[in-house]
Every structure is written in C-alpha cells, then in structure tokens.
Design a protein that fits this description.
about 450 residues; heme binding; Methane Monooxygenase Hydroxylase, Chain G, domain 1; mainly alpha; single chain; binds protoporphyrin IX containing FE
C-alpha cells in the first residue's frame, strides 16, 4: 500500500507517458476512497488487483525462488496439451489423459521442493511480509490454476472420458499451495476462475502467459488471446464508469440531484464506449468460431464434485451493472465466493446494498430515474447482442459431452445432444429471468 501511494503521489513524469491518464485515474480513485463507502470499495478493488484495474498480475520474475519451478513445469507441459485431431475412442483418450497426467506429476516431483514451498508460502502469507506483492500472488494463482486445469483435462480439446470423471486426486505439489492462494485472494473453488485464467493470465504486454494452444498456429493463438483480452479490454474502458457510478451514489445520498444526473449521464456515455469495444472486437477474425469452443472454452470447465468452472458471467463489468441497477437474482455469497476474489465481491456487494434504483424511486427525481433506466436499456441490448453473437461459437464436437462455458453442466445422456442446443437453452433460461428483471 505504501508503495502505491509513493508511486501515485510522485511527479506525473514518473508514469510512462501512455500511462499518464491511467495513473491519474487510479490516483483519483484511491484518493476518493476516503469520501464514501462505495468509493472505498472501488479503491480497494484497485489496491487488491496489483494497484491497477483491469488487474495487473506479475509472473515468475516477481515470485520468491521456491515458487519459480511451477512456471517451468507449466511451460514444459503446455506443448503436450492440444492435439489437432481428437480421437473418438475412449480407450485411446484414457491413455492420452493418463500420459499427460503422469508427465505433469513427474515434472512436479522433479522440480518442486515441498518443504521449501511450505516455508515460503507461510512466510509470504504473514500479514507484514513484503516477500510477495499482491500482483505476484495473482500471477501465481494464474499459474497454479492453469496447472490444475491442465491436469484435470489432460488433453485439448477436452474429451468425454475426462468429463465423465466425478472426482480426481491431484498431485500434492498442486494441492499444497492452493489453500494459501484461496486465502490470500479470497476464493473457494478448487479450480480456476475468469480472474485466474483471463485477467491474471496476461503479461505487461498483454500477451498470454500460460497458453493452451502451443504449436497450434496463428488462428488458434489469436482466438486464445482474444478469449482473455476482450474481457480485459472492456474493463479498461469500464473503469471510468465505475468511478462515476460510485460518485453518483454519493451525490444521490446527499440529494445533490443535478450532480447525480450529470454524473449518471457521463457514466452512460462511458458504458457505451465499453460496449462498443465489445461489439467491435467480438468478431470471427479475433475469435474464430470453429476454434473457440474446442480450444478455449473446454479447458475452462471443471465439473469435478459438481463445481462449476470459468464463465464469462464471472466478468466484473456485467456483474457491476447487475449489482448497481438491482438486476436480480444475484448469486448467493457462497456461489460467488467460489470464483470472485474478495475485493471484487466487496465492490459488488456495496452496490447491491446501496440499491440505487430503489433509492431513486424513493427520492422521486424523474431525471435520475430516467438516467438509470437508460443504463438498464443499454444492458438489456448488450445481453441480446451478446447472445446473438455467442450463438456462432456453439459448434458441435463429437469427442465431448455437452458442456456450457460457465456452468460446466455435463449430462450423462447427452452424447446425442449437441453443445449448441445445450448452451443456447441454458443461456436462454438464465436470460429470461434477467431480461424480465430489466424490463
Ligand atoms: C470472448 C468472446 C466471448 C464468447 C465466445 C462468449 C460466449 C459466451 C457463452 C457461450 C456464454 C454462455 C455460457 C454459459 O452458458 O454458461 C456466455 C455467457 C456470458 N458472457 Fe460471454 N462470451 C465472450 C465474451 C464476453 C465478454 C467480453 C463479456 C463481458 C463483457 C461476456 C459476458 C458474459 C456474461 C455476463 C455471460 C452470462 C450470461 C449473462 O449474464 O448475460 N462475454 N458467453
């Protein structure tokens, strides 16, 4: 925290020039954190996300030396994960999965010194330890989550043989660090999240650190990159809006209606920019429809012990809008804690508790109500647009059971049912509730 302040309050020239505006925005958000309880949660989101938003994870170079071999192991196994042609033979696939798992286990055993890991993680977890900054924890979380997903699936595209497993014993090298990460980041899932697998899986140049399409060629690599980058870039665009919705809440609480209205108007404009970025970039060049589901989506699933994997629904922009605008149902605390780091949940919960639309109704200022309704309309249109675009990505893959991106629902009798009908039905179900709420 001290280092954030010294960086923020140092001369503006200490920020690289293209980062100036970004630095200024972080500076404003952190300073305004003292003014209101919602602004405080936004400031905390930044300080707990590597002093940045979208989050800034740092990787192997920033970790204590005992942890560095995990990076080595991932980089060595990555080329063995994807295959060009999937086998449809369960026995072949079982052999392949077992082979990858044996390789991961052997490399972990060779590279990782368990006593050193325990000692280092204990030391890093002490509240006053400066051995591992938050950004390094986030990068380490990304590495361990990638290793756990690699061990879970064994081969990409994922195959039915692995999907049918209900329980799986992980090597102890992958189990021992996990509770430390869970406690530090504030998540409970045994698998990854959109944060670990997308937000924290890009380096300073916004390139993928733990790739799952090694050796597959440009189209695969680009699709993999955009599968993470799009989520990150919409957060770039959304941050100014987060600041303004926090400010609008404070203005409304103080019954400063003209400031509430003008701030909400600005927030609506900023939201338009974020959504435009999504529409401009979710296209067939950046994200090749035939490659996204087999080479990007499958790996994000989890399914073991009925636990969901990574979903686009875990992104913060849409959850922020749902929370701010009171679009229910919200996930239970228990479900949300599986995948959303504590600082993200605290931000969302502060907006939910405030419930600005209910307060606006109570205060009865028509223009405030109208600006909020405008935002609701933008969100509804985005949801319909996302669903339309998303349908292009739901291709049939004969090697696997149907599995939705986020819910990881696998049904045993589903061999004949294609992924497209499964996903569309699942999403329509979810959206029918949400779209009704936003009417
Ligand atoms: C990278 C390209 C993307 C593809 C191919 C894609 C595809 C999908 C699919 C197939 C689902 C359904 C998942 C399920 O059934 O669990 C889904 C859900 C969702 N996605 Fe995306 N998505 C993409 C990017 C994004 C981005 C950038 C955002 C946020 C700005 C987003 C937000 C959501 C949300 C919020 C849901 C849950 C449904 C809802 O609340 O509307 N997606 N996505």
């Amino acid at each position: 925290m001290a280092s954030l302040f010294s960086w923020i309050f140092s001369s503006p020239k200490s920020c690289p020039s293209e980062e100036d505006q970004r630095c200024l925005l972080y500076n404003q958000i952190v300073q305004e954190g003292g003014q209101h309880h919602i602004a405080a949660r936004l400031a905390e989101l930044i300080t707990n996300s590597g002093n940045a938003w979208p989050p800034k994870a740092t990787h192997v170079e920033s970790w204590p030396s005992a942890l560095k071999p995990y990076n080595v192991v991932y980089q060595r196994i990555a080329p063995f994960l994807p295959v060009r042609e999937s086998s449809l033979d369960d026995a072949d696939n079982r052999r392949l999965i077992n082979k990858t798992r044996a390789l991961i286990a052997a490399l972990l055993e060779e590279e990782i010194q368990i006593p050193d890991i325990c000692e280092t993680l204990e030391e890093c977890s002490r509240y006053d330890s400066e051995l591992m900054p938050m950004s390094a924890w986030l990068g380490f979380y990304s590495c361990l989550a990638s290793l756990r997903h690699a061990y879970r699936w064994g081969v990409l595209p994922v195959v039915r043989e692995a999907q049918n497993e209900k329980y799986l014993q992980f090597p102890r090298e992958l189990d021992i660090p996990w509770p430390y990460i869970q406690r530090r980041v504030g998540i409970t899932s045994p698998g990854g999240s959109l944060s670990s697998n997308s937000y924290y899986n890009l380096d300073g140049r916004r390139e993928i650190v733990y790739s799952i399409t090694s050796g597959m060629g440009e189209d695969h690599n680009r699709t993999e990159l955009w599968n993470g980058l799009l989520f990150v870039e919409v957060e770039d665009k959304a941050l100014p809006m987060y600041r303004h919705i926090a400010k609008a809440s404070q203005f409304l609480e103080n019954e400063d209606y003209s400031s509430t209205i003008s701030t909400l108007r600005t927030a609506n404009e900023e939201l338009k920019v974020a959504f435009k970025h999504f529409y401009d970039n979710m296209n067939d060049y950046n994200l090749v429809p035939s490659l996204w589901l087999p080479y990007c989506q499958g790996f994000q699933g989890w399914t073991l012990e009925g636990i969901d994997g990574v979903s686009g629904g875990q992104n913060i922009l849409i959850r922020t809008l749902d929370s701010f605008l009171g679009i229910r149902p919200w996930p239970t605390e228990e479900v949300e804690a599986l995948h959303l780091p504590l600082a993200q949940r605290n931000w969302l919960n502060s907006l939910r508790t405030f419930d600005i639309r209910a307060l606006a109704q109570k205060k009865g200022n028509e223009e405030v109500i109208q600006e909020l309704e405008h935002m609701v309309t933008q969100l509804r249109l985005w949801r319909m647009g996302h669903m339309r675009r998303m349908q292009r990505y739901q291709v049939h893959r004969p090697e696997r059971n149907k599995m939705t991106a986020g819910k990881s629902l696998v049904e045993e009798d589903s061999v004949q049912v294609s992924d497209d009908s499964a996903m569309v039905n699942h999403l329509k179900q979810m959206l029918s509730v949400r779209l009704k709420e936003t009417k």
